[in-house]
Amino acid sequence: MIIAAERAARPSDFSAPSPPQEGGFCPFCPGNESATPHEILRRRTADAEGGDAWSVRVFPNRYPALRVEGELVRSAHGIFDRISGVGAHEVIVETPRHDVAFGDLSLPAVSEVLRVWRDRILDLSRDERLAYVSIFKNQGAAAGATLAHEHSQLLALPTVPRDVELELQAGDDHWRRKERCLSCDVIRQEREEGVRIVHEGERFVAIAPWASPTPFLVWIFPKAHASHYESSSDDLLASLASALRIVLQKLGTALEDPAYNLVLVSGRLRGGPSPSAHWRLEVAPAVTTSGGFERASGCWINSTPPEDAAAFLRKVPSR
Amino acid sequence: MIIAAERAARPSDFSAPSPPQEGGFCPFCPGNESATPHEILRRRTADAEGGDAWSVRVFPNRYPALRVEGELVRSAHGIFDRISGVGAHEVIVETPRHDVAFGDLSLPAVSEVLRVWRDRILDLSRDERLAYVSIFKNQGAAAGATLAHEHSQLLALPTVPRDVELELQAGDDHWRRKERCLSCDVIRQEREEGVRIVHEGERFVAIAPWASPTPFLVWIFPKAHASHYESSSDDLLASLASALRIVLQKLGTALEDPAYNLVLVSGRLRGGPSPSAHWRLEVAPAVTTSGGFERASGCWINSTPPEDAAAFLRKVPSR
Q: Which residues does A40 contact at the CB level (< 8 Å), separation at least 6?
């Protein structure tokens, strides 16, 4: 767990969740660049419009959960463990437009965002103190967003977080016993069965996973084995952008533009290429509220079988 | 994960979370008993008022995630695993009063609820198909409640859910290496340090746990080692009721009656007494919304150090 006392100053913390502000000042809009911390990266895509100074911007989170400065210290406190909060917490503003949904951006614009994610991971992976980079997007108040303007976030961590570690270990175990990648096995079975396929293109397949914890959860896998997202070519990321837009647009149509979380699950930093890890994107519409049971058990109750979700999403058009 | 397609009929599912209904018909109020499924148990405490026919009622959830009927079948589906949805899903209405908070009920009334929890676990533990009973309470819409009238829920499961199993295994590992209970070690260190103690009575101690995932999380432990909640005497549960009321009232004062989850974490059914498991109650105010990072990593970012939460809660009066 990350204890980040400085974040308590964040206006949205510590009261009932408040909806993203609309109509007020937006620090992510063009012209307000001085309202954000120093820029780490700025890109301008070929299809940017005349007046656009940038298409994608990256800067540190104003209320960072982790900081780049300082030495990495691991220590015991009695029977407890502590590790210093070294890392990075960045914001990726995905478009200069305040009112366009990420999934409705042009193919080159979405591709640029996916390349920026890759390039930030590659840059951060040179820091030997870091063990894992999590990239995620919270869209809508119910999904944890505090600002409406489309953006994603990046957390670079000094340790692999528990649930990622458990999954990587499960992949390692499967590899040791079978000498096959667990995700490749899943992809093969899903393509044979077909019932949980949401969309399939040349290089990516989107599925509603077996025993999905939440309704309409979608995983997007590269069909060819690949352990690390940051090894992706521009060409592969253009294919991913196409698959991701289709999935987001289908979900937007099916569930009337739901709040959602988008997460990259990838291998350990500098740990690849690995035969047992296989990166993916997860798109999780925030259509249910978790309660005490889910919190305590890690087990979710899902009233929408993934087979039903996939059948519905296959039928629904992308915009 | 539990796939419960029948629950899709539940009115609150599948749209944005809606607040608990107020002012309308309440199926949990006295006089509306016929609106609930058949009663499993009914209790009347000594301090019930004249007109009260009952103090606590238990019946099956109308939209059950699991059902008592049927054979327990474990099967493989290609590389996936399936287990039939055998179990129980019950509702415990904790008071006949529609508008009284659980933590403001009388000591005998709270004690009766805690005895009903125990008695339901004891009854269900005779069913050899069941492996674990989770008891939890969602209070307030932000905590997953769909009805405002105070109630808790019980899920009896054919398998120990993942996060409980991981914790029980961690306890087993600690016992094998040290021949000490991990929770007893935690309790000892917390009592020595004092900084994370929220409240301490003769038989129970309430702490804000080290590296709490969420703000103002409180664990209530029996100070004497005990692996299974259902082995508790009436006397011990009266002490627990006292500690729980103090914690709930302190949280109510500190956070202005927050939505919260209350969860019992206990040992495997028929697995005790065990030297390595130690039951507890968790009270988790729902003051933050989780996002994609928490979802994918199992790691939470908490801006309120447990030491600060405990210091604040120690000062705040219980009502």
A: A58, A59, A60, A90, A120
Which CATH number goes with the domain that contains A73? Answer: 3.30.428.10
Question: What is the pTM (predicted TM-score) of this model?
Answer: 0.93
Closest CA to A61 of A21, A93, A40, A91: A91
Query: CA of A51, closest CA in chain B: separation in Å?
Result: 33
Location of structure tokens 């109510």: B252
Put simply, whether B164 touches A (Cβ < 8 Å) is yes
Q: What is the ipTM of this complex?
A: 0.91
A305 in contact with B at a CB cutoff of 8 Å?
Answer: yes
Mean pLDDT of chain B: 93
Pick from B96, B122, B157: which residue ends a domain? B157
Query: With an 8 Å Cβ cutoff, is A143 touching chain B?
Result: yes
Domains held by chain A: number: 2
pLDDT digits (tens, 9 = 90+) for A268-315: 999 879 999 999 999 999 998 889 999 889 999 999 999 999 999 999
Question: Does the residue A20 lie in any domain?
Answer: no
Whether chain A has a CB inside 8 Å of the CB on B210: the answer is yes
Please check whether residue A7 lies inside any domain of the structure: no
Q: Which amino acid is present at A9?
A: A
Question: What six digits make up the tokens of B306?
Answer: 């447990």
Residue B14 confidence (pLDDT) above 70: no
Nearest to B261 among A16, A143, A292 (CB): A292
